[in-house]
Structure formats: C-alpha cells, structure tokens
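Attaching the record inline, Q. Sequence:
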Amino acid sequence: METPDFDEWVAQRGAALLRFAYLLTRDHARAEEAVQDALIAAYSRWARICRGQDPEAYVRRSIVNADISRWRRFLRRETPTPDPDEEEDGDENTPETPDTPKATFVPAATATPDNHTSTPAPGHTTAKDTEAPRLQRASVKKVATGAKLRFWLSEPAQVSIALVRKGAKSSTASTVVQAPAGTRSFVLRTRALRKGTYTVTLAPVDAMGNKGARGVKTLKVAK
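Structure, as predicted:
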C-alpha cells in the first residue's frame, strides 16, 4: 500500500479531524490544539503508521489522548473551587439565579481512561472503538442554587441531564455538559425546585457516538 503524502493527507482530512475534535471538546480552541498536537506526533512516524493501519483512526485516537493530557495538566494547576454545599446553610431568601438552568462545573479527581482511548503502537492495527462510556456512582441532592450532581465517567463524554418533577409533562431543568474522565460534580442551577419528588436522568455518549447506560436518580425536595 502506497504511503500518502502527509501534507496532502492533512489538506484532505484536516477539516474532518477538526470536526471530530470539536465534537469531543465542544470548544474550538481546545479542538485546534488537540488536532495540532496529534498531527505533530504523527508526522515523525507517518510511514510506519500508514504501513500498519488506517492513519485516520490513529490520528483520531491521538486527538483523544492529546485532549486528555491537556485536561490533566489543567486539573493539576487549577485552584480549588468552593464546594456549592456551603451554600445550603445560607439564607433561603438569597436571590436566586435566572430561570435558564446553568451547569457549574467543579472538576474533581481524574481517573485513568479505558484502554480503547489510548494511542496504538505504530504498526499495529486497531478495531473500531465500540466501547461505550460508563457512568457510575451517580448522586444528586438539593443545594441553595439548584441540584448538585456527582458522578464518575470512564472516558471523556457528553452527558445529557434532565430533571423532571413527578407528574410533570416537561423537564424542570436540563442541560448538556462535556465532561472529562473521572469523578465530576457540578450544580444544575435553577430556581424552579419546589416541594416534590424529581427524577434525574444522566445519559453519556462519547465522541464516537457510543451511548452508555443511563444513570437514573431520585431527588426528594422537602420544602
């Protein structure tokens, strides 16, 4: 099999790689940085990559790894964020946030990603990534500014979250967050929580479109 010219290949596939990276990161700057890092790493071993496998599959996995590495560096140097639980004991009359729910992200410990997100060694073929992200240890509780959620992810994924009051025809609050691997916690900000029972659904999907099992939790609001 003839090795494609690196510059020509990048010119042809660069836009598709950037779209893939954006779906992974949901951030244009992060996407561009991840693609650049992956292509720099691939350049010096291009002939070996093309001999043993699909170069695009290799570069896509390198993009995933590059973004994970940047997240780890970010988490190591990030300053601590106050725990939203501290607001629970505050004045109940404190003005609340606007009606549109917002997710406040509080990065926590990073987990080691699954093997299927690691970059394969040159000269080795890899199967298509079909392993779905695993969402575990989910919990939810009411805080002064909305609902605090906490969960663990096996790999970076987009998580769709919906909070529905029992008997209601539509969700009380919903959002979509792009979460890195590990234990994550954030506050779904809403002033619409009132006495009643709510169901919280968390649905993860990774950059390859693999959908993980949904996490479903119950939130009871006493007042």
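The longest strand covers residues 196-205. The chain has two domains: 6-77, 89-221.

More tomorrow.
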